[in-house]
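Researcher: Hi, I'm a grad student and pretty new to this. My advisor asked me to get structures for two proteins we've been looking at. I'm not sure of the right format, so I'll just paste the first sequence and hope you can take it from there.
Model: That works fine. Here's the first sequence with its structure tokens right after it:
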Amino acid sequence: MPERLPSDHETVETHRVAVEQVGRSGRPQVVLPDAVGLDDGDVVGLALDGDDGFAAVETSLDGDTVVRHVADNRRQARERDGPNRLAEWIADAAVQLGGSAHLDVVTADHEYGLRTPGKRVVYTATDDPDDSLSDIARDLDG
């Protein structure tokens, strides 16, 4: 059963992360800390100031682990399809390119949250997905 978990809860690990732009295009990216342990190709839940979303982790040309697109569902995240909720969030929040945000680890390797520094949000924490179901989904995706 999902549990409500505030961003300032003792079990939520918080990291300050850089919010950058990619080249001259102005597309946003969030640089993930190595301590989070995510790898290129991982698809995780990523809430933006509490609004649920999904992101595929990528590796930048500099070798950093980054998120560049937040989507409404896992399929869109894998395919980098649909509206980019990350760009919308940056445009609407008090977060700026060249600035920083807070990355909350809600459920390691599964569920994360990006939030505006100083803002308190409440996440819906769920258990890790069943490994066998994840394996089946990966097999179907090819």
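Researcher: Oh nice, that was easy. Here's the second one.
Model: And its structure:
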Amino acid sequence: MKMTRSRRIDIPNPELLREYLGQESDPLVRLRLLVLNLLAELPRSLTLKQICDMVDVPEPTVYVWVRAWRERGYPGVCHPTETGGEPGRPPSLDDSDLVVLEALLEERPFWQTREVRALIREHFGVELSESQVARILRAKLGMHFGKPYPRAQLEERSITAYERLCAQGLSDEEIAIGFLDEASPQLTANTARVWHFGRGGIIKNTTRLKANAIGFYALVGEGVQDFLSRSTPRPIAEFLAATRAANPGYRAILVILDNFSSHHAGEVAQAAQDNAIEFVLLPPYTLDLNPIEFIWKTIKRVISVSFIRSLDDLREQIHRTWQGAAPRCSYAKWWIERFMRHVLSYKCFCGLL
């Protein structure tokens, strides 16, 4: 096996370094001297990173200590960041610049990294890489980097639908709420990860069978799962009627669903009206905001490691997995916290938040 040699870092006066190390009582200074001594006697089999991992010190910090020892000796190691011992360049943006940058960034709800990079170039005349910008935003300003959610739009739609039901004289206890969606799990699903020796092969029926499934994942009320002959308006309208029949104790059902074209069809809208179902349509391109997707993913993972002989077996497996997963409100805990905390006051939510 080819061995890689670690690059030696020149540490001058190693004998004097060892002498100071033997006399030092300050634990912080002793740690610095110890690391420098290790570097001076760096074995060929160890890298700088390995030494830093051993003493739990970042590599850039060690380079500060090395520069301080080279330039000022023992006083530099005692105070490696004092004036005269500070290595490297000053920060591109000082504390006052960061205050100004934070104020500029607060003028908008969100930014892309390239936009902040251009902002820094325009206002401070500093050219930074996107990775440098990201470090400043995260470490210096405490900003978060993640996918934006159309929260306000979804909250507004939820509140509007809820207020319409309240205006009809309904109380919280008379309103069921849940999520509707269709999916087509198929035998070729391969989403589960397993521990194995060798190649991890599994015997499966590779016939291209799929089942057009539809479900109502209820937070309040009774969930429903069935299969569609086709994802067209009439079967979906019939499923709404079945959902209404499964929830006779509620005067209305608040259903959150995506913008699939069939959901806008007149026959579906009429079925919703006939069955006292109030739709809350998700904003476009936000399928990940529908918690029922996690149930479909659970079903696909089960199918991934199952041997299924026929379409009937596939449907049975889907229905059985749905029955086990749908009663868990935990799939929607994050959704309730993000979008419904100030909209509905269902008692059953209290245990989730």
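Researcher: Is there anything I should tell my advisor about the second?
Model: You could mention this: The mean pLDDT is 81.
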